[in-house]
Design brief:
mainly beta; about 10% helix; two-stranded antiparallel sheet; eight-stranded antiparallel beta barrel; about 290 residues; 2 domains
Length: about 290
């Protein structure tokens, strides 16, 4: 009787051995052992050929968490941005109202390195330009009649934004970072128009300007957000604000037209103020990933 009891207990243990799932050491349950099929699941169990097969612990763990092990950590995209902006920290007291309005445009490439499913490192390399203009004068003359004068500045640069991106939702991201601009060239012109908006040719002595010179390196801060339309296309918006002044010669010598002389301080030296003009812009941006 005793032998029969022991044999029955062993048989029951063998029949129920697969009733409880095992742990793979990563918090995932290993399917109970099965003998049907010809495919090995990596744990010594045979699976039918029409069922999915886990080849590694990482794949099994990712599948249990809903992750995408096929997502590449590094992606390459074409980048485009366009927006409106103006100046801030502009010395209106000495240079008149800040009526400047600008258009900025960038195009280049973006690299996205995925650190975690929600955190990415996104540097860019762009060619860009900024066009700003304002009306600086208007009046009337016996020769031209009513007229106005517009001043236009054009700045070409290479800019390198470096962004940290957080993706709290599958289709939505926020980003922040910094940018360094390497200013390459500038243009500075005056344009004269009659009362009907037609361009007026004026003698060069009235239209020529000193060359507008800017600093070579200008740092900026960036913040923005966006949406992933699909796996290849992102659309977003960002705000860019310079932290350093753009004027190469940032000194303003005050001049008294009535005295036809510089305004002077207590020591008799010309009074000097600082021109800290900086750019800001709001852009609509897009990234198209092709790798």
């Amino acid at each position: 009787m005793k032998k029969l009891f022991i044999a029955s207990a062993i048989a029951m243990m063998c029949l129920s051995a697969n009733a409880f799932a095992e742990d793979d050491g990563y918090g995932n349950d290993i399917p109970p052992a099965r003998s049907e099929g010809t495919i090995d699941d990596g744990y010594g169990n045979k699976l039918p050929s029409n069922e999915p097969e886990y080849k590694s612990f990482d794949e099994a763990r990712s599948s249990s968490k809903g992750g995408d092990v096929n997502q590449k950590p590094l992606s390459l995209a074409g980048h485009f941005g366009i927006g409106l902006g103006s100046y801030w920290d502009y010395p209106s007291e000495y240079l008149g109202d800040n009526d400047w309005l600008g258009i900025s445009m960038d195009f280049g490439i973006a690299f996205k390195y995925r650190i975690t499913p929600m955190l990415s490192f996104v540097p860019e390399l762009n060619l860009g330009f900024v066009i700003t203009s304002r009306e600086v004068a208007s009046g009337s003359s016996w020769w031209y009649g009513d007229y106005r004068v517009d001043e236009t500045r054009v700045l070409f640069d290479i800019n390198i934004p470096v962004m940290v991106r957080f993706t709290p939702l599958p289709m939505f991201y926020v980003e922040a970072g910094g940018r360094v601009s390497f200013n390459l060239a500038t243009s500075h012109t005056l344009d004269y128009y009659d009362e009907d908006g037609n361009s007026i040719d004026v003698p060069s002595r009235y239209s020529d300007l000193d060359e507008w010179k800017v600093k070579t390196f200008v740092p900026s801060v960036i913040g923005g957000f966006g949406f992933s339309i699909n796996k290849q296309l992102e659309i977003g918006a960002r705000f860019i604000m310079d932290l350093g002044g753009i004027e190469d010669d940032d000194k303003i010598f005050l001049y008294d037209t009535k005295k036809d002389d510089f305004v002077r301080d207590a020591n008799g030296d010309p009074r000097v103020e600082t021109n800290g003009t900086k750019n800001w812009t709001i852009q609509v941006v897009g990234n198209y990933y092709f790798m």
